[in-house]
Amino acid sequence: MQNSAKRVKDTYGCHPGCAVEAALSLIDGKWKGVILFLLMEEGVMRFSEFQKALPNITQRVLTSQLRSLEADGLLDRKVYPVVPPKVEYRLTELGASLAPVIKALSAWGNENKTLWPMGFKRDSHVQQAG
Predict the structure, then answer these.
(1) Which among 120, 102, 110 is positioned nearest to 37, based on CA atoms?
(2) Nearest-angstrom CA–CA distance, 73 and 77
(3) Band of the pLDDT at 48, cuts 50, 70, 90?
(4) Roughly how many angstroms between the first and final C-alpha of the chain, as a whole number?
(5) Does residue 90 contact residue 47 with C-beta atoms inside 8 Å?
């Protein structure tokens, strides 16, 4: 294992695990993973659809998270020249390549529900009907 770690450092000039650190930096925070998960499920979403699906996120934070994901090349933002403005978001090929990772996180979370913080509501990112 030590030789493997040394090879990683020699090859990439970083510590073992830096690839994990770099990957996690793209999906860090409370909402990016959930946004990616929703886009994987829905395909294309508008800003208002995110707001409905994520009732606990502020407009400012949602805008920031979407811009960050776009800047990192994980999602595409398409603006239609109509009034009122129509903006759609979809995963890029790079974003879609995270599907196994996001699905694995979802499966792991479902298998380890006992670790969820007290008061955490399953599917709290999905607005309840009624």
Answers:
(1) 102
(2) 10
(3) very high
(4) 54
(5) no
Residue carrying structure tokens 């040394």: 6
DSSP 30: S
Q: What is residue 87's three-state secondary structure?
A: strand
Contact 85, 68 (CB under 8 A): no
Q: Position of tokens 């508008």?
A: 46
Alpha carbon distances (Å) from 129 to 40, 46, 52, 119:
22, 19, 11, 20
Q: Where are the beta strands (DSSP E) in 3-130?
A: 44-46, 75-80, 86-91
Residues contacting residue 79 through CB under 8 Å, at least 6 positions apart: 85, 86, 87
Cα 112 to Cα 64: distance, rounded to the nearest angstrom: 30
* pTM assigned to the model: 0.76
Q: Is 99 exposed, middle or buried (0-12, 13-18, 19+ CB in 10 A)?
A: middle
How do residues 28-43 score in pLDDT, each as one tens digit?
888 999 999 999 999 9
Tell me the two tokens of residue 105.
Answer: 């996180």
Q: How many CB atoms lie within 10 A of CB 33?
A: 20
